[in-house]
Amino acid sequence: MPESHATHSPTEMVDTPYGRVRGARDGEIRVFKGIPYGAPTSGANRFRPPQPAAAWTGVRECLRYGETAPQSPGRLAEGGTSAQDRPVVGEDCLQLNVWTPAVGPGTRPVMVWLHGGGFEAGSGSRQLYDGANLCRRGDVVVVTINHRLGLFGHCFLGDLAGEEFSESGNVGFLDIVAALEWVRDSIAQFGGDPDCVTIFGESGGGRKVSLAMASPAAQGLFHRGIVQSGSHLRLTARDDATRLATILFEKVGLPVGDVAALQALPIQDLIDANIAVQRETGQRFTPVLDDAVFDAHPWDPVAPATSANIPLLVGTCRTELSYFSFVAGEDTKSITDEDLPTRLARYLPAAVATEVIEVFRASNSHASPPELYALISTARTYWLDSLLQAERKAQLGGAPVFAYRLMWRTPFRGGALFSPHTLDLPFMFDNVDKPDHVAGRPSADTAALAEAMSESWLAFARTGDPNNQHVPAWAPYSLDRRTEMLFDAPLTVVDDPFRGERATIEQLPTQQLGGGLLVRLPL
What we know:
- The radius of gyration is 22 Å and the shape is globular.
- By secondary structure, the protein is α/β, with parallel strands linked by helices.
- It has 16 helices and 13 strands.
- The relative contact order is 0.11.
- Strands 1, 2, 3, 4, 5, 6, 7, 8, 9, 10, 11, 12 and 13 form a 13-stranded mixed beta sheet that branches.
- Strand 8, helix 6 and strand 9 (224-228) form a beta-alpha-beta unit.
């Protein structure tokens, strides 16, 4: 049912810690949009940990998405299904959305979605993240959230402005913790079980799940984690974060450390400054090893012991980087065998480029040079970090880790994108019937993949094990077998698929070493 129809049919009222809310119906699904979980982050609250929302009297009509966090204009900042429903950008962005089959006390699994866009863009209000179909299929409660991004969420001021701002480099992550606390305290009234909460996310959302697995502040607030194309192993070094903040003050023409003046600036001035800092340094405002919120890197050199008993599902798409080449308008079709080493110079040291290319060519004998470029650049970035995360989780012991790869080649744009970043989204959300994705038109293949992936995600949310009647038997990842589910048509489960590629790419270090990335990863 189109979203506009949902707003015309009021649903039951529900009490939250701050007041009573009323949503709408999407068929039999109850939908609540724009529920506050924290106070506005403007003025004196800017760069500070989230504060409680102000209580209200009466009934708050939660029929439209709340504000999107301040960020540069772009597709990822947009949400809703029409200009009328599209949220505005603003600092009253600590709001969330709930889809549920029924309100009132319940024990349904809860799935909390952390949106993509790196740490600087995106919104939980995109139509592709609509949780109604997942609710219908799995009898679960789905929550999507907005939180602070970019310099609003990750500008570290502790070494420039004192202890009062020691957590400023991670307040965007602390927003996520506050949203999970709201889920713990409120979700039972929306039919969910606060003791069965799964956090899941793709790209930047997967990075946020990675951080939550390592965060003492988030422990006890969720019970399973799913990292899709976003294994985040290391944080920005404190000195690098301070350097970025210093450059920010210079860009806006303020004395270094004058946070009060920075808090008073208009949103657009800070958005423009964020862009200017990024252009000058090649770095972004991202979570910080600040010795306050985080005192160690989350997944390097080992998996976090804090989440030893939390099951993990982790994976990537086969050619993640083909998506970014497409979005950036990069000419990859003209790549030849001769210039492939030069084109891959951003991803491979010259000393190993020839060896890596030959290994990948041997295991992909029919791949063109453009496809080899997408395969190798993806392996060097997304796949390597996903492998390291799966290996370290398996080495930790405790709860299992399950690994997957999305192999299916989309017909979108004539098949030129192969198996790109974001391809998983319409499948695991069971939203192949919605626009704004790269899976192409609905087909027998997309229906089968939507069934397989959404049912696996739902099974994992219920039990911590993705096995279900729609997929072959799927064993946990281990260092002796390295089992992966290959989502394709048909589905297969393979031990150590592409062994030669893995062994070769694992000779290289993660690109997340040091204060920044050796190769600047896309969103």
